[in-house]
Amino acid sequence: MDTDTADPAAVLDALDRRLVHALQVDGRAEPGRIAEVLGVSARTVTRRLGRLLGTGAVRVVRMPDAREAALGALLLRVRVLRGRVEAIALALAAQDGVPFVDVMLGGQEVSAVVLAEASARDRLLHGRLPATDAVLESTAHAVLHLFADASAWRCGALTAGQEAALAPPPAPAGPPPAPDALDHRLLDALGVDARRSHAALAAALQVPESTVRRRLHRLGAGGLLRTHVSVDPRLVGAAVDANLWLDVEPGRLAATGEALARHPQVHGVLATSGPSNLMAAVFCPDHAALYRFQTGVLGPLGVRRVETAIVARAVKRAGVRLRQLP
Prior knowledge:
Layout: H1 14-25, H2 31-38, H3 42-55, E1 58-63, H4 66-70, E2 74-80, H5 85-93, E3 100-104, E4 109-114, H6 118-128, E5 135-148, H7 160-166, H8 181-189, H9 198-205, H10 209-221, E6 226-231, E7 240-247, H11 253-261, E8 266-272, E9 278-284, H12 287-298, E10 305-317, E11 320-321
Antiparallel strand pairs: 1-6, 2-4, 2-5, 3-4, 3-10, 5-8, 7-9, 7-10, 8-9, 10-11
């Protein structure tokens, strides 16, 4: 299968999609464990994962702790001169504190998530963007509450039983132990490749492999080792990606956010500042499905107003520049 020339709607077959879903459940799952749950040979899983990960069609990265990610995060919308959107999108994607960048349909808006610390954020918002003649306007919305982020989305290729069999043990009650300096180095080493082997991590950090295994187990059990599968949604049957800016009655905001976080098409829900008080990012097979989502899902939830911003191209997701499909 040639992932560089195949039709995007048909690139990943049923088994490949099941493998993507398995990695979404546990980004560090061993091929043997995945094979056992899916009922295929470990050799097949190893070969398929090697191709998907080796070509860059699928990448597994570490996501920051959800509470840490939401604290001080901003949703940025930048209106750009026609013809200059690519340059602005790439400039934003080059920033370490900007893990998500999308070019919106129409070619005059770039959407981004900013997680930078205060001084870097202020330099971007009050210095670099206003000084760029290609930027017509920018608005920043503070994230007030995180209901769900990209790490919680599943592509729907596994049964509930298969997903449960692959799921790591639940984190124990109470706050996790504070990570020390070595824990932080280990987590950083998993940033752009969360499937690095124990041996590779041990060599990179110059510590015994047994230490790496023990530390990863403790970090995972404490809920600090969150992973995210970076994949073009078209490869798993989601041709339409949209950001829905919602106006919800304050008394229904929490219930609406929680309901949307549980919906299988939603890959992010956040309460925000600004004219809209909730933003939901959704994947749909086509525009008709997006319409059905608005009428069949948002309507009963009592959403008063919806602004629909469709993503034309995802440039960066979870800190990773995406490989572009033809």
